[in-house]
Amino acid sequence: MQKSSENKKTRTKTANLVEAKLTAQEIALIPLNQIIPGIYQRPTHPTQVANIVKSFDEAKLGTLTVSQRDGNWYLVDGAHRLSALRTLGYTHTACLVLQNLTCADEADFFRKQDDDKRFLKPIDFFRAGLVAGDEKCLKINEIVKANGLQISKSHNSFNEIAAINTILEIYDDYGCRILDDTLRVIVQAWNGLSKATQSDSLFGVAEFIHRYGMVDFAERLSSKFTTVWNHYSEALQIRGVRGHKSSRKKFCRVLVECYNRGLGNSSTKRLKWIDEDVLV
Questions:
Q1: Which of 251, 162, 155, 243 is closest to 203 using CA atoms?
Q2: Is 278 a member of any domain?
Q3: Which of 4, 102, 116, 171 is deepest in the core (most CB within 10 A)?
Q4: What pTM was computed for the model?
Q5: How do residues 234-248 score in pLDDT, each as one tens digit?
């Protein structure tokens, strides 16, 4: 990549719209061994660097952002990508070079650079995955549709699932078979109840099936959703919850307790709960 022959200049107004600062910018090929990390940079995490190296795609790398000051190039954004490039043996990379900035200006740029960005929402990520032919997104969409449901931007009814990250996590943690079983038993047992296809319910049922299988879930729990939900909500208020994994176990334990109601202590159908640290 050759160095741009002309600087691109942009004007950035201050918050009070009184003063304006002229920042010169150019795209240039910079030696990696001459880029100095800014003192305000976040610590570089080896795992993130390793992930970039493992799935490296130069087309998706973008440009690092550096500031040319005092005869040096100071890194403003791209520490993990810089480390990955060095690991891969690169000697130069294309950078957006900023000029006329002080160290304080660089730090302010670093902390505010994402202010005007719109990050992908889960629905946008998923839909783009379908168009891109992503195997996971295609399989999940197939499973959801096969159960008479659909991935939706907003959760307006039982048939619309807005908890896309939950669906993706169930697929990753338990596999496509349990995702399919989870949606099937929810449709069988709680068809029409909008809360039944929300994140907590989906996670809890997936955990239940992961532990105990399908058993006769629909037959024993079809009329107990209100009890399950109320008991779960009370458990969250009393004991709180720490993360998705704890939440799904709490919901699962409530399901087990409701499932066991009416079964004698000696019944072979009773389910045994083994995580005694998960209280409800």
A1: 251
A2: no
A3: 171
A4: 0.66
A5: 888 765 554 456 788
